[in-house]
Amino acid sequence: MAKMKIYGTPTSPPTRVARIAAMEFGHDAELCQMAWRVTPDELYKLNPAGRVPALEHDGNTIYDSRVIWLYLERLGDSRPSESVRSLSGPYCWREANAATLCYELLMTGMVIRGMEEKPPITEHPYLARCAERRLVLLRAIDDMASQGWLVEPATFGLADAVMICATDALVGREIINIYDYPHLEGIRMRYQTRKSIAETLGEYYPDQKGGVPAH
Ligand SMILES: N[C@@H](CCC(=O)N[C@@H](CS)C(=O)NCC(=O)O)C(=O)O
Question: Domain range spanning residue 35?
């Protein structure tokens, strides 16, 4: 069987979610670098939404990191780490809400960064709305984590992965000070030693232009 492929870039947070999922479910997926800035036509051919990640496996092309996580969870030959939480387990609705909030956080980053590009839009009601949404979301997710965990203490799942990918991109680009969100900081520290998190961390720096493949 051909090797599982994940299309995206090392700094794309949702691509990282898909790569974390592959590792957590016991697959050795290849990261194939693809970005809309570099090969837009190729990307539209792969995914009509023109977004990464997309996963190619066994004749299937799966878009969207959340669906990729579900696909891998359901795949017969997945070998999940013992501590991985199922999306349909006893905490499924808390997981769904936490994951949705963390995805929304991730998306505010993309909208704001997109508007900052040349020619930059510095004043627009939707930009202000996204900036406000980001702050409210960070507070809400930090509140959710006030017991020292986001969904369930001894396990790791989609919500934790998306929270870490979204906040790493913000922390690494010096957009937020994670010490303002002490509960999230605690959870993030806990996962610093998790292989899938450590091995997929991209290089983030201030004023970074996203979507350009690393050399
Ligand atoms: N909901 C999607 C979001 C994917 C997404 O927006 N990816 C960004 C890269 S980080 C992208 O491809 N952006 C291209 C664009 O905005 O045109 C997922 O979780 O996979």
Answer: 5-74
